[in-house]
Amino acid sequence: MDVFIEQVIKRKRNAKSIAVIVLVLSLLVLIPVFCFVLAFIMIPYFAYVGLFVFIIGIYLAWYFITGQRVEYEYSVVSGTLDIAKIISKRKRKRITKVEIKDIELFCKISDNRINEKIYQKQFMAAGDPNDEENTYCVVYNSPAYGRTILTFTPNEKIREGMKPYLKKEIVLEMFYNRGTRNGSY
Questions:
Q1: Which pLDDT tens digit goes with each residue over 154-165?
Q2: What secondary structure does DSSP assign to 108-137, as a single string?
Q3: Closest Cα partner for 72 from 123, 132, 17, 10?
Q4: Which of 2, 22, 86, 147 is most open to solvent, judged by the fewest CB atoms within 10 Å of its CB?
Q5: How many domains are there within the chain?
Q6: Which among 70, 91, 74, 92 is positioned nearest to 83, based on CA atoms?
Q7: What's the domain range around 59?
């Protein structure tokens, strides 16, 4: 029986995305103003350049500001967890695809076991990585990258959809609170 469960989660704005927005808007205003000042000082032709830069700048500012809207799509399809990044509903990029049976560790981000090991690759697909209550980590061996950690924010449906394909020890630990090393669940 095929299982298909999907979740789309919005990434919360962070300091980097706010800084990009402020920088783009300030450049949208400052470059044309600089061109108009040069038009009064040097050559009147710079007024036309400033107007042209402002018109083109409006489109570029819209493009960069809307590019800061990021969503993550999690889907569980018959034993495979597929995570994609959707940028401003115009561009889709696959982050990773994991066979659920290959998952070695599935725990909350606050679990101290994830800090013990070094990972060759880290994928961040969480809506808010600072939300320790709802953010989970998955550790698996990727053929392309080696030991990999994935941080994401699955809802109850996604976790339940993964449950039949997870290893027995992980299911007991995650869903039935048995076999935990530190009891942090």
A1: 999 998 889 888
A2: ETT-GGGGSS--SEEEEE-S-TT-TTT-EE
A3: 10
A4: 2
A5: 1
A6: 74
A7: 15-66
